[in-house]
């Protein structure tokens, strides 16, 4: 399942260059889902075998817009001790200039990324309510986003889950939460 998370970005260098760390290792983050919150940590080494060769930089996860950059030609992704570093050369377009200026002014300061966890690449500890990611297969895209403070799973999964969650009555929600935890425990056993 494709998932999305957030991080920070800044304007850098000459021209329309943006850089940031869309993925930060070993940094606990609270993830909010319709069924509750949990802590997530992406471990150093999780990207060691990840596909990073066809990743796009877009605005706000909107694939209907022209990408702002793409690896390997106009965006470079490098794994550093702190996390995944992104450096992107934006095109000289009206939209790219507006995004660059908003980042330079501090109006946009967040990044988000969409990714796929590899099989067996995450564990869940119900005692600490923590998901630990140790293997990411693919980073699909990194996005400049206006609201970076709210980490979330993928739009597709989140909208479907939210719809189902809203239809459930309170006792059904409690039962669903128990089932989700049972599934996560079985998967990690």
TrEMBL record:
Keywords: Hydrolase, Protease, Viral release from host cell. InterPro entries: Peptidase_S78_dom (IPR054613), Prohead_protease (IPR006433). Residues 9-159 form the Prohead serine protease domain. GO terms for molecular function: peptidase activity. GO terms for biological process: proteolysis. Pfam families: Peptidase_S78 (PF04586). NCBIfam families: proheadase_HK97. This is HK97 family phage prohead protease. It comes from Kyrpidia spormannii.
